[in-house]
Design a protein that fits this description.
single chain; 492 residues; alpha/beta; three-stranded antiparallel β-sheet; 18 helices; 55% helix; globular
Length: 492
Amino acid sequence: MKGSLLSPAVIQKVLDTIQKTYRCGYQLAKQPKREKVLIDYSSPNIAKPFHAGHLRSTLIGNFVAKINSTVGHEVVRINYLGDWGLQFGLLGAGFKRYGSETQLADNPIKHLFDVYVEANKMADKDPVIEREAREFIQSMEQGDSNSLNLWQRFRQYSIEDYIKTYRRLGIEFDEYSGESQYWNKTPQLLEELTTKGLLQRTEKGTQIVDLSDMYTGHSSYATLARSDGTSLYLTRDITAAIDRYDHHKFDRMYYVVDKSQVNHFKQLIGVLRMMGYSWANRIHHIQFGRVTGMKTRRGEVVFLADILDEARTRMLHNMQVTDTTKQLDDPDLTAEQLGISAVILQDFARRLSKDYKFDWDRLLQSQGNTGIFLQYTHARLYSLEQQAGFPIPSSVESIDTSHLQEPEAIDLVAHIAQFDSIVLKAYQEMEPHVIVKYLLRLGHLVSSAHKKLRVKDSPIEIAQARLILFNSARLTLAHGMDILGMKPVDQM
């Protein structure tokens, strides 16, 4: 849609659609067939660092969930925790030696991490600790009540702490599951594979499925059991996928995991296909690149909360030294929302598969293509509405759109009109950068229009038309930001 060709009637239709639909929340006008979509994302390992890959998975998974909801799908958000295996043995054995009930209650994630680090360090020097770790795992697998109670407490403390941190990002999960639900179901999977003639034993004693008819190289066979018969992460993932389909009968399932795991998901899908599960083709791996340079002032990032705290602290400092900062009711909350928006936009500024370097200084700038710029644009438009001196017209029919013929107005209307097609493209490609690019352009068009199209002190007919245009721009911006996982602020 070219701005120079927009008639008053077309402008009225565009603005009328936005005013009637966007004020009550946004959904794509022409929606695809409704589907049930499962999204597996974030997935931290209990007692291990919440690294940059987990942050990317969390932010990207939230976008995937939101874009699927926006086009009308039923979405189930799953957080599949690393809550079983050797690290838990080390944690259990380590807690008996170095644990503190007081510190566990006060800051469970940090204390469990500290215990794990200490146990891991000592295990390199003292083989007794590694033996104790394996004995702890064995006791869990044999149903020992004391070991299982301790494991259950660690897991519950961790989930409660994760929920607090996710809440800061505006993220909620429908299910918290984990490897612990499936380790004891893997013998049934191996038995089924044996019955179907798919499981082979190598000279080393490991058990594999041959996938050479589908893949070459490292993906051409999938190892599903060690020589001692114990299962691997892939085995548990396959068991979980079967369980999820049995429970949800999903139309699509996304795993949001970094690109280093591409062979893992090829093998997962390949084994399921070999087993005759046609729904394996409904599984998709959303892969993403690596982030480097993610550090706080105190050093390497260990926990997600560290990143959020750092973003808030730095943003609060920037606000305090900026003359234009408004008097805010809750500057800490505003700083948090701005900081999170900045982190999100830096992450989504390019195709997901690309690697990037994390840059605190650049991402918190209010000028240029940043999350702070988008928030500033939203706050500026909100302020314009509050200071107009009259309410936003209740309907577009009551205004004269012939007053919106300036190039800046027409360009803004033309861009707003593209929002549906942009959302559809972002959904089809499953790429947030499509929306980021659109919103940044919207921000720059708003800035140009704001300079030329005065609302205050203009004749009322012209002022009303301009105000409804700016309000339509703000509604579009707000819905786009929401899909990306940002909470628009009204003041900053």
